[in-house]
User: Fold Phosphoribosylformylglycinamidine synthase subunit PurQ from Allosphingosinicella ginsenosidimutans.
Amino acid sequence: MKSAVVVFPGSNCDRDMAEALRLVTGEAPTMVWHRESDLPAGLDLIAIPGGFSYGDYLRSGAMAAQSPVMRAVKEAADRGVFVLGVCNGFQVLTEARLLPGALMRNAGIAFVGRDVAISVENSQSAFTSRYAAGETISVPVAHHDGNFQADTATLDRLEGEGRVAFRYAADVNGSARGIAGILNEAGNVLGMMPHPERAVEPAHGSEAGRRLFEGLLEGITHPA
Ligand SMILES: NC(=O)CC[C@H](N)C(=O)O
Assistant:
């Protein structure tokens, strides 16, 4: 599987993401600096990692969404390339309008950093095919702007189209309907606040995130 990890000034989970991809796919991803306007040819997956791009100034992800590389990411997504945005990556994808809604300040104002239980709401996507629908998994979160909000029509549409991929088992940050991760209409773009790349080996305490990368690898090698 050919993958790339986009790096912004302030990204701090880019290495974790690269390591998870290398571990699961056996191939190291290409690290792509955000000022590039082109991505490597033939990519299967683009990962937008967590962190504090541009120091979270203005709004989390708002400045990164304007980086030259994001135009290439959008073009690739339109062609069906898989795009995974985790935490700050999810914030960047909403700011770039590849995903609907917005990630607001956590309802409790404080930064939340701990393992949380999330349920897999849709196991039909390539990202979630290795999970059972309704399964609860443990994955860490680390954010202050994880409070997913959208208007009622958008939330209803996300639910109705099976685009809520993950939901918090108990409230973590005030997110509307407990939404922890969503898919785009075509199902090839996933944004999620919990960090699957931090749950891929025994030392992490949970290996639940590993199956997300395994599902992608399988989906790419054996497309449905
Ligand atoms: N770990 C992260 O990606 C942090 C995301 C974001 N900057 C926040 O704190 O909300």
Q: What stands out?
A: The pocket of glutamine is lined by residues 13, 50-52, 56, 60, 87-88, 142-146 (CB under 6 Å). Residues 3-221 form a domain with the Rossmann fold fold (CATH 3.40.50.880). DSSP finds five helices and eleven strands in the chain. Residues 10 and 55 are 6 Å apart (CA to CA).
